[in-house]
Design a protein that fits this description.
The chain is mainly β. The chain has no helices and 22 strands. The chain has strands at residues 10-16, 21-26, 31-36, 41-46, 53-56, 62-75, 80-96, 101-106, 114-115, 118-121, 127-129, 134-135, 139-142, 148-152, 161-165, 172-176, 189-191, 197-200, 204-207, 218-221, 228-234, 239-244.
């Protein structure tokens, strides 16, 4: 058969190129699932509590799983939790970088909708907060160059996308796109595999550049795509693939619409 029905609901998922497998998280059971789409078999890792978000590192061998007030660092190849560390926030999205840090984006804040990015040193457990603020509910992705993160905000009008640096370990906000309401962003984003383009959940495409005046500038539209829950690009296949979504559900989970 072409399809294989899963016995659990997927909360978040990313692809590991190194393992050529899809990595997913679920509740009931609280697990990481490392799924082989060819053999339709999987390996699982039991998680300590219900997870909220997942990030697979650029090397494809490690992942970070975010919960309320905790983050687990996962060894995907050896299917084990390396460590679980505390972090003082209700976590919405998590980004694992290759610099020894995981970056947590808050779900909400009882005092203000504007808050910090929390940078977790995976070796020491030390948590530092960013200079500059982000809006709660921001969904974020690590750029393929490994030194910048881009985020798409939710719950604010007009929506926008923005850039943060992680070169010094602690994340710091840089700037947002030059557009304020010109183009809908729809609360999520993805990159072309060479990192030169940014695809947003509304199908608008923007450039990615080291130069500020060229960064996040409009570069066209994915014709026929109204809203997307996921977008991926392959330069080898010369193909962009997208999974459509309903707009009202886009911000319910960092990467996967349910």
């Amino acid at each position: 058969p072409l399809l294989n029905t899963l016995s659990y609901q997927v909360l978040d998922a990313e692809y590991s190129k190194a393992l050529d497998k899809v990595v997913m998280i679920s509740t009931a059971p609280n697990q990481v699932h490392i799924y082989d789409t060819v053999t339709k078999t999987e390996q699982t890792i039991t998680l300590p509590i219900a997870p909220h978000s997942l990030s697979v590192g650029l090397d494809g061998l490690y992942a970070a799983v975010g919960y309320d007030a905790q983050v687990s660092f996962i060894d995907l190849k050896n299917t084990r939790i390396v460590k679980t560390l505390p972090i003082p926030l209700k976590l919405f999205d998590i980004v694992l970088a290759g610099n020894g840090y995981a970056y947590a984006f808050p779900k909400d804040n009882k005092d203000t909708q504007w808050t910090s990015i929390y940078s977790l040193n995976l070796s020491t457990g030390t948590v530092t907060t960013s200079l500059g603020s982000v809006y709660t509910g921001t969904q974020a992705k690590l750029h393929p160059n490994g030194v910048y993160i881009y985020g798409a905000n939710n719950g604010i009008t007009p929506s926008n996308i923005e850039k943060y640096t992680v070169q010094a370990g602690t994340a710091n906000t840089l700037y947002n796109s030059p557009y304020q309401g010109n183009y809908p962003m729809c609360g999520n984003l993805w990159f072309s595999d060479d990192g030169k383009r940014i695809f947003t959940a509304c199908g608008n495409v923007f450039r990615s550049s080291y130069t500020k005046d060229q960064d996040m500038t409009y570069n066209g539209l994915l014709v026929g795509l109204t809203y997307a829950q996921d977008i991926t690009h392959s330069s080898v296949a010369n193909t962009i693939a997208a999974i459509p979504a309903y707009r009202q559900n886009l911000s319910t989970n960092p990467d996967v619409d349910t």
